Amino acid sequence: MRLFTAIASLSPLAIGVLASVASAQPSTSASSASEAFSICGNGQRITCVVDGDTFWFRGEKIRIADIDTPELSPPRCEGQRERGLAAKQRLLDILNSGPISFKTTARDEDRFGRKLRIVYRDRRSVGDILVAEGLARKWEGSRRNWCE
Predict the structure, then answer these.
(1) How confident is the model at residue 35 (pLDDT cuts 50, 70, 90)?
(2) Is 67 helix (H, G, I), strand (E, B) or coil?
(3) 29 near 99, Cβ under 8 Å?
(4) How many angstroms separate the CA atoms of 87 and 72, rounded?
(5) Which domains does the chain have, with CATH numbers?
(6) CA-CA distance, 31 to 97, in Å (whole number)?
(7) In a 3-state reduction of DSSP, which class is residue 23?
(8) What percent of the chain has pLDDT above 90?
(9) What are the tens digits of pLDDT across the range 72-119?
(10) Beta strand 100-109 with 54-57: parallel, antiparallel or unpaired?
């Protein structure tokens, strides 16, 4: 009864918003909302983060196509290792913060068989987020040295 009274006291606009949210269909885009990402280990890789620009999602290896992050295997200097670990952790945090979606690129895969995708969280490129935070660079066709 309290719920009915609370809903009845809402404005027509608020009731309309609640009704549209309640009747919304699930997104058809890839979503991590019900799947928790972890850091990849030595076992089977299903949904986990490898480094700052590579992760596994539902058993498929994804390379974020629009960025480059510091290498971790192996890093060339201590600064690269530290920045690479920070990018990896931040990517984990972003992927675990809600639904993600993907956009294909001109090339479907790289030479290592990873799917090349632009990854979005709340309609914002995950790559753009990492670049803005200083944890990645825009991809310019080849890796550059992070130890300078």
Answers:
(1) confident
(2) strand
(3) yes
(4) 10
(5) 31-138 (2.40.50.90)
(6) 11
(7) helix
(8) 64
(9) 988 889 999 999 999 999 999 999 999 999 999 999 999 999 999 999
(10) unpaired
